[in-house]
Structure formats: structure tokens, C-alpha cells
């Protein structure tokens, strides 16, 4: 993107696994730089555990890579300054500087889609924790459900989009999607209402715990589930309110940026590099 | 204290409530400054909700004050630069720079005494959240117990020193202290062992949630309960381990500083003021 944050080139490709995925990332970056003559810096957002400070992607369950020094690799390949970080933190940066969390010194940006994680800003500082901070999707909410991470009762195991669809299907025998469950909730269909209420309770448990620790002024819900809008935010705000006493109340809102949040955030990181040089 | 962190003067007095407490703090600071000729700066640590960035004590349930601008009041009274912050964060600063969390860029310092709270350092930054960050004592752990804060099931309501003693007394009819319960645990007394195991589970629930969000490399347990040493740390480390999967494992240890942690930390804050001037 350019300095006005307008997209100047786009390359999409499927994600292979392991070493092939690393090669695909490097090739994609190379292609984008070639398509954008005069490119001055690179910002890269990746999933999994990644240390934004060192630019090393430590681990991704889904992609299957380990300890990939992306910053060094891309610098070598392009000769440009490179910022590398977590996709969710990139999205958080976009929401914090230009989107729904703008103006807040303390915020939580929580995309809820296939996975769940949080970009956590405290005192204006985006928390990295060597790549381990903000993993709210793998906080136990006490549910009796196995999680892909190997744990039990993680928020993601019961409140991600696929988890909501799976729980509805288990209850009714009808295969569906989280969007369809939300539509049924709006119509008052009892099974959907019950699944939704449980989901809200689990999200409330985790977000209240995060509020107690991180004191966000605003919680921004993103990802596919944010399409439910007030159907989600209304009961969720009530649920969180019921769990707090003297704590500061976070405002709940939906994300401004949809799928492109990570791109915008990584672009902002790249611009930061140019400003600090 | 002097620049070598040696204590040069001490004043102790009982804590009155409300406005009288504010006057007592100001008088005490005045006395200390008078006893230490050449005093260059003041560091003050207070309980409750306090914004270390503005130096305003917003609220304390126990003391009963509200929105006291301590930094401004003390500056006016002494003419010295003043740092004001939370007692638990002051203790955290002492442990982080000179004590059990030294060398860690991510840490949680958790005094467990009459109350429970955490000083949370992420990426080397001590989290303030306008004074609301780190209130782990008032995170719900799902216990069926009312809390002084008005909530139900807060960690503090079941795992503080008085709460442990109360739970043991309720079970056995015998009034006691948390230290005495720990001594009975060491002897294998079944009721004490049961109360302790429950306590460990609740502490593990809250500390695992904090680990998922804040990614501490080390968790420092302070306060009265830390006197139990390995009797607490051993099972607590096992409990937390059982709740984590891909997350970074925190090392558990006890605090270096006991009662004086807050004083040392506030002194370090005062020294910081002199260095940045």
C-alpha cells in the first residue's frame, strides 16, 4: 500500500504447509515488491506464535512451521526494512490507530472466526510477550469440550465460528454455519437461542477475566462472528457487566476493518519503520 | 532511603479512614522529608485503584478515599518531584529490578495476603491501565463464595489468607490462620489438605488465565501465603502445568522482598524521577 494506505498491489495464493509455506511467503513478498516499484519497506503479518520484536515465527499449528526468521529472510531477499508480527496484533494495530479502538490507551481487539485471539493494548503499548500474549482463545472457560490445542474447555473450542456450528449440529442434527445460527437466533428458534446464550456466557467469562487483568476501555469484536452485530454485542455487554464490580467497564463494539485488518496493520508497521529510520 | 537503597528514616502510624487517611499520608510524608535533610524526591505507594501515570488515587474500599490527587498534593507540600502508584505495582517494581523477577521481560508478581492483586510486566512495561490493570484477586474462579467487592467467586474470596482460614474453620469448626493451615498441611491433616488442594486449584485457574493473556516467564508469589514455600509452589506449578498446552511455561518462585517491597519500589520510582530530570 502507499503512504495514503491505499492498496497498490495484491497477490493471493493458497497456503501450503511447512517449508513450502515459508517459500510461498517469500515468493509472495518478492512478487509484491516487484509489482510496486519504489517499495520502501515490508510489513508481514503471520498466524501462530510470532515474536514481533525479533521477527521470528516460532510456531504455527495450522501451517506447520517452526522458528522461521522471517524478518532476516525477507531483508536478505528484498534489501528493504522489514516488520514482522502476528496477524491478530496487526489487525489490532489497524483498529487501534484507524478503527474502532481509536483514541483508547487500553483496548482489546478480539477477532472471532475459525480461531480466537486478542490484540491487547495496555497504556498505549501493544503487548507481545515474545509472541505468547493475548491467547484468549486458549483460556479455559470451564467448558467440557476438547480443543485442537490439546487442552479442554478453551474458549476457542466452544465459541469460534465452527464451534458454534458444531454445537448447534450436535444439538439438532442439522449441519449449519455460525452465520446461519445467528440468523435463527434473530428468528427466536429455541435451539439456536440456547446455543447462542451459552456462547455469550463463555465469551463473557473470558472477556471479563481479560478486563480484570488488562483494563480495556474498549473491546472490539472482529472476525466472522462480528457480523452478528447487536445480536452478539447486546447480550455480551450485559453478561460482562454482570461479572464486574469496581472494575472499569469496557465499551463493546465491532471492528471497522474486516478481512483486510491484518494487511492494514502490517502496512502501518512498515510505515513505522520508515518514520523511525 | 538513600541512593544505595538503604532506609534512612521510618515513620509508622495506624491508618485512619477517609479524609483523615489523606491527612495522615501527607503528614507522614512531611515528617519523613523533615527527618531526611537533603531529600530529593518522594515515592508514594498506596492501595486501591490508583493511576500511576496521573498520581491520583481513584478509590480504596478499605481506606475509603476517592479521587485524591496525591502527586499534586505532595508536590505542593514538599516542593519535591513525586511519584505515586499502587502498592502492589511498587512491590512488583522491587521484585522486577532487584528481586525474584529480575532479568525477566515478562513477569507477574502476586502478593497473596489479606488481598490479592498482581503487578504485571509485559515486554518490560509495568501495566497500569489507569489503575485498573492486574486485579487478579477479583477475577472470578467460579467458586460459590461472595466477595467483599460485591461479586461472587473472586479469587480473593477463596484464596486470600483470611479466606483460607475461614474455609478451614467452616469445615472443621476450628478458628485458625492460613499459616496454621499450612502447618497442618505439612503434617498431612486431611481437612487442611483438602482446603489447600482447593486453594491451589483456584490459584491455578486464575494464574493460568493470566499466563494465557500476559505470558509471564516468571510468576513471583509474595505476601503472607508465600511463607508456605514449596508446600504451595510445588502443587501450584503442577496445577498450572496441567492447564497449559502450547503456552510458554512460567517459572514459579517466592518473593525476595517481604513487607518492605512497596517501600523499595516506591523508592525506585523516586530515583527514576531524579534520573529523568
TrEMBL record, chains A, B:
Supply the gene name: glk
Q: Which domain of life is it from?
A: Bacteria
**What family, per the record?**
Belongs to the ROK (NagC/XylR) family.
Q: Which Gene3D superfamilies match?
A: 3.30.420.40
Q: Which PANTHER family match?
A: BIFUNCTIONAL UDP-N-ACETYLGLUCOSAMINE 2-EPIMERASE_N-ACETYLMANNOSAMINE KINASE (PTHR18964:SF149), ROK (REPRESSOR, ORF, KINASE) FAMILY (PTHR18964)
Which InterPro entries is this protein grouped with? ATPase_NBD, ROK
Q: What is this protein called?
A: Glucokinase
This protein's species is Actinoallomurus iriomotensis
Q: Which Pfam families match?
A: ROK
Amino acid at each position: 500500500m502507499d503512504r495514503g494506505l491505499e492498496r497498490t498491489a495484491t497477490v493471493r495464493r493458497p497456503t501450503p504447509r511447512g517449508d513450502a509455506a515459508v517459500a510461498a511467503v517469500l515468493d509472495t513478498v518478492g512478487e509484491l515488491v516487484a509489482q510496486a516499484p519504489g517499495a520502501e519497506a515490508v510489513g508481514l503479518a503471520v498466524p501462530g506464535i510470532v515474536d514481533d520484536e525479533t521477527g521470528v515465527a516460532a510456531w504455527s499449528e495450522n501451517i506447520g512451521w517452526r522458528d522461521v526468521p522471517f524478518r532476516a529472510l525477507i531483508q536478505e531477499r528484498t534489501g528493504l526494512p522489514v516488520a514482522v508480527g502476528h496477524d491478530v496484533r496487526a489487525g489490532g494495530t489497524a483498529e487501534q490507530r484507524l478503527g474502532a479502538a481509536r483514541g483508547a490507551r487500553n483496548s482489546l481487539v478480539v477477532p472471532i472466526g475459525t480461531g480466537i485471539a486478542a490484540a491487547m493494548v495496555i497504556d498505549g503499548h501493544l503487548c507481545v510477550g515474545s509472541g505468547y500474549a493475548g491467547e484468549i482463545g486458549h483460556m479455559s472457560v470451564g467448558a467440557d469440550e476438547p480443543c485442537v490445542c490439546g487442552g479442554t474447555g478453551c474458549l476457542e473450542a466452544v465459541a469460534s465460528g465452527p464451534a458454534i456450528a458444531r454445537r448447534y449440529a450436535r444439538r439438532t442434527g442439522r449441519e449449519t454455519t455460525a452465520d446461519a445460527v445467528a440468523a435463527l437466533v434473530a428468528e427466536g428458534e429455541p435451539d439456536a437461542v440456547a446455543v447462542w446464550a451459552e456462547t455469550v456466557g463463555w465469551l463473557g467469562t473470558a472477556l471479563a477475566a481479560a478486563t480484570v487483568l488488562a483494563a480495556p476501555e474498549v473491546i472490539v469484536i472482529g472476525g466472522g462472528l462480528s457480523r452478528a452485530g447487536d445480536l452478539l454485542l447486546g447480550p455480551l455487554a450485559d453478561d460482562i457487566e454482570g461479572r464486574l464490580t469496581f472494575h472499569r467497564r469496557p465499551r463493546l463494539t465491532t471492528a471497522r476493518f474486516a478481512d483486510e485488518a491484518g494487511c492494514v496493520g502490517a502496512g502501518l508497521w512498515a510505515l513505522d519503520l520508515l518514520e523511525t529510520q
